[in-house]
């Protein structure tokens, strides 16, 4: 028995266009996956946390007649390095898989980024399907084709643009997600409203409590609208020459917090939430937002269960040091993504250093 997925979106990238299906129970919809397989050989890549929850269901739904193998990696951001990619390649070669195999990423952003990168290089490019299981990966990392791993000297320093053939988003998988991870993903959802679509932000304000309470219909709608915005931005600027940079709203400050505190102490989404507030505050210093706008941003971040104060031990110097290292700064100039108004982000190099200092000094800790 198969029911139609609740939502379907298409990412328009010419020959590399692909669909995103969003709805409850889609892990059981192997038929949606089968039509995108390159051949009979399938390698599912997942981890020790997600495998016991969803691997059997996914395998069962793929049905008969396929050669399905699996790689189960350790959990966590600290596994996102070349050695794990090596394990995926080893498994593919040991299985004797050829270039018409398909890799399926079953897990959060860590699994998705690694699987995509392994696929991009395997025999010069193998097919790849995303089955993201965290809110963050459903609204962000599974869409857009950025794949890669960390290097001891920097996050996401090795990678490739490699688009999936399909993204299958099962909203039911969020039921097992720790609430802190749900909040972290919600930061990126809020980001889309702030940077692109004020009506979406209004909708989030109306529905945040129900979303955090895991109302699946509303979560499906929030994911659909988030993916639609990301897909629109990516279709305009696949390799981040221009408008795609707006998706980094809150990320320059966020990365500073993440790096300063040590990776994993603050979740990425938590740091982005606070980072967006800092961007809003600086936008107010520029005269672009009112204090009411800043309060509005604070309130929605807070309602998503995200922190609204920076770590007590982080001073102005710490921020500046980390922000200068940000790889998004072109030619050493400070490029920031701020809000022209709620619902419209801009890339600007106009912020005077003194204004940034002033904002950082007075930020509540
Ligand atoms: P994650 O993959 O580490 O997942 C978070 C935790 O939740 C992990 O412990 C995971 O095993 C567990 N988990 C996953 N699904 C679950 C479920 N349904 N139930 C219970 N537990 C579950 O982290 P994430 O936040 O999904 O992704 C973060 C990664 O994504 C980072 O490495 C980041 O660099 C990357 N990222 C990439 C892009 C991109 O464009 N490619 C964009 C944003 C983030
Ligand atoms: Mg992010």
UniProtKB/TrEMBL annotation:
Gene (name only): aroB
Residues where Zn(2+) binds: 188, 251, 268
Keyword Cell inner membrane included in the entry's annotation: no
Cofactor(s) annotated in UniProt: NAD(+); Co(2+); Zn(2+)
EC number: 4.2.3.4
Family in the record: Belongs to the sugar phosphate cyclases superfamily. Dehydroquinate synthase family.
Domain 3-dehydroquinate synthase C-terminal: 185-329
GO cellular component: cytoplasm
Gene Ontology MF terms in the entry: 3-dehydroquinate synthase activity; metal ion binding; nucleotide binding
This protein's name: 3-dehydroquinate synthase
């Amino acid at each position: 028995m198969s029911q139609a997925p609740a939502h379907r979106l298409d990412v328009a990238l010419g020959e590399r266009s692909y669909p995103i299906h969003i709805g409850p129970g889609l892990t059981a919809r192997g038929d949606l996956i089968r039509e995108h397989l390159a051949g009979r050989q399938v390698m599912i890549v997942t981890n020790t946390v997600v495998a016991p929850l969803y691997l059997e269901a996914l395998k069962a739904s793929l049905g008969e007649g396929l050669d399905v193998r699996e790689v189960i990696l350790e959990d966590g951001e600290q596994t996102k390095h070349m050695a794990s990619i090596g394990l995926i390649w080893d498994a593919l070669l040991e299985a004797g898989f050829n270039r018409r195999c398909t890799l399926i990423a079953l897990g959060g952003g860590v699994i998705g980024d690694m699987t995509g990168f392994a696929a991009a290089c395997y025999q010069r490019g193998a097919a790849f399907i995303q089955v993201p299981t965290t809110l963050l990966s459903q609204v962000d990392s599974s869409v857009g084709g950025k794949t890669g791993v960390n290097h001891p000297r920097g996050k996401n320093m090795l990678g490739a643009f490699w688009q999936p053939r399909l993204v299958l988003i099962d909203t039911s998988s969020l039921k097992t997600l720790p609430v802190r991870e749900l909040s972290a993903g919600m930061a990126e959802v809020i980001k889309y409203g702030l940077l692109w679509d004020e009506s979406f932000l209004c909708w989030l304000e109306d529905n945040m409590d129900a979303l955090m309470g895991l109302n699946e219909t509303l979560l499906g709608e929030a994911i659909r609208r988030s993916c639609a915005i990301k897909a629109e931005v990516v279709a305009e600027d696949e390799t981040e020459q221009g408008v795609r940079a707006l998706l980094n709203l809150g990320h320059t400050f966020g990365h500073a917090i993440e790096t300063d505190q040590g990776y994993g102490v603050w979740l990425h989404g938590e740091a982005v939430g606070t980072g967006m507030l800092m961007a809003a505050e600086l936008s107010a210093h520029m005269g672009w937002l009112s204090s009411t706008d800043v309060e509005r941003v604070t309130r929605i971040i807070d309602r998503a269960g995200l922190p609204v104060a920076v770590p007590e031990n982080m001073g102005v110097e710490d921020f500046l040091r980390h922000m200068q290292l940000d790889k998004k700064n072109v030619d050493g100039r400070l490029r920031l993504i701020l809000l022209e108004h709620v619902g419209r982000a801009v890339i600007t190099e106009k912020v005077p250093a003194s204004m940034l200092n002033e904002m950082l000094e007075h930020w509540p800790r």
